Every structure is written in C-alpha cells, then in structure tokens.
Automatic annotation (TrEMBL):
Descriptive protein name: Protein phosphatase
Parts of the chain that traverse the membrane: none
Domain of life: Bacteria
Listed PANTHER family: DUAL SPECIFICITY PROTEIN PHOSPHATASE (PTHR10159), DUAL SPECIFICITY PROTEIN PHOSPHATASE MPK3 (PTHR10159:SF519)
Gene3D superfamilies reported for this sequence: Protein tyrosine phosphatase superfamily (3.90.190.10)
Annotated keywords: Hydrolase, Protein phosphatase
Length: 207
C-alpha cells in the first residue's frame, strides 16, 4: 500500500520507529492524525493497537454501534484496540501526565484481554502512538519508552529521541520543537520516577 506523505516535510503518515520490540515481538510506530485514522493502512502494517496521546484530537473506530447507542454518539466494539491519553503539545501538562502516558503505553503492550464476547479485539499486533502530526507528543512518549525499556541501546533520553526523530523523518530544522522542550523535560523527570517505581515494585515482589 502506498502511503500518502504528511503535509509538512513530505514524511510518511506513519513511521516504523522500532522493529521486533524485545519482550513483545511487535513493531512500534509513530504517526499523526492522517495515519491513525486510516484503518486500511493500519491493517496493512499489522497495527492492532493505537495510543492517541493528543488531548485535542479524537477518533471513532466503532464500525457497528451498539443498538442502545445515541444517534449522535455511537459506542460499541472498535475496529482497533484504542487507548487515549490527553497531553497538551506545550506548557500546561501536570508532571504526572507523561508518567501516566508511559504506564499506559507499557500497559497496552502488557495487557491481556479475557476470552469473552465483550472483548472482541484480542489480537496482539503492532502498536501506533499518535498525536496530531506525529512530531512532538508521540515522539517524546515513544522515546521515553525506548530509553526506559532498552537502556543498553538507548542509554540517554536524547539518544532515544534522536533515534525516533530519524526514523520518523523529522528534519534538523524542526528538531527544536520535535518534541517541544517542556515535553522533553517532562520525559526526563518521568524516566527518573519510573526507575524509582520499578525498583519499589521489584522490592515488594521479593519473598
């Protein structure tokens, strides 16, 4: 399938930023609203899960609304396993928003849905993290995850950001805002908090 370029800088609507993620065996993608809303494109790339981290953007993946849905808002099983996080692309986010995003991303990868009719989308495919343009919020969140999950490969957050920037085809002239500086700072603080939380969980798990 031919992917239409994003309107700015002629980049793909979605970009594979990591292949065969260790521990999960899935590919990790970053994209914007055009790619996240293109169901055939998502399926062509084996993407079964979308994490939308933009507070000013929403999708409705429900193909067949429940019979008791309201006319204006239909609800029911979605074509994509969909997670929503509301980050502002700039100042205004509580520090805990990036922390919530990290655990939501890791949770989306770890979560196992029950074998029940009310959970029809149980397949475990590739994962897309999106924001409006796939340049700032999604880049910060995915870089944070790679830095924490693969510290030997990405020993610093900046190394992970540079990797995602390159894979996403972000041009050097836009790096000053991809991601926004306050989101990078939030991701740095989050990496420290995650280390403390994971260490506490590990201590609690010891007999």
């Amino acid at each position: 399938m031919t992917e239409k370029p994003s309107p700015r800088f002629d980049r793909p609507t979605i970009s594979k930023v990591y292949e065969n993620l260790p521990g999960y065996g899935v590919d990790l993608y970053v994209g914007g609203r055009e790619g996240a809303s293109d169901i055939p494109l998502l399926r062509a790339h084996g993407i079964s899960t979308v994490l939308n981290c933009a507070v000013n953007l929403d999708f409705n993946y429900v193909a067949t609304p429940d019979e008791v849905s309201h006319d204006s808002v239909g609800y029911g099983p979605a074509l994509i396993r969909y997670y929503k996080l509301g980050i502002v692309d700039g100042p205004g986010n509580p520090d805990t928003m990036m922390l919530a995003g990290f655990f939501q991303l890791r949770g989306a990868l770890d979560q196992i849905l029950p074998e029940k009719p009310s959970y029809p989308r149980r397949e475990r495919g590739n994962l897309l993290v999106n924001c409006r343009a796939g340049r700032s919020r999604s880049v910060a969140l995915v870089a944070l995850f790679l830095h924490v999950h693969l510290p030997q490969e990405f020993p610093s957050l900046s190394a992970a950001i540079d990797h995602v920037r390159t894979q996403r085809a972000l041009q050097p002239e836009e790096w000053h805002e991809t991601p926004k500086p306050m989101l990078i700072a939030a991701a740095e603080r989050t990496a420290h908090w995650v280390a403390l939380i994971d260490a506490d969980i590990a201590r609690s798990a010891k007999p």
